[in-house]
Design a protein that fits this description.
mainly beta, three-stranded antiparallel beta sheet, binds zinc ion
Length: about 60
C-alpha cells in the first residue's frame, strides 16, 4: 500500500500527524470495558483537512 503525505483535498505536502485520544478514543462495539484504541490521524496544515484515520491497535476489534 502506498502511503502518501499529500493532502487529498488541497494537494499540500505540509502534513502533520496527530493522535486522537481522550474522549475520541475509538472503542470496539460490545467491549465496553476494554481500553479501545488510539487513533492516528494526519492533518493538513494548509486547509485543516483530516485524513488517513487509523486505529493504532486494529486487532482489538
Ligand atoms: Zn489540505
Amino acid at each position: 500500500m502506498i502511503r502518501t503525505d499529500k493532502c487529498p483535498d488541497c494537494g499540500s505536502l505540509n502534513i502533520g500527524k496527530g493522535y486522537w485520544s481522550g474522549y475520541a478514543v475509538l472503542s470496539p462495539v460490545g467491549k465496553l470495558f476494554s481500553m479501545g484504541s488510539k487513533v492516528t490521524v494526519r492533518v493538513c496544515k494548509e486547509c485543516g483537512y483530516l485524513f488517513d484515520l487509523r486505529a493504532e491497535k486494529p486487532e482489538k476489534f
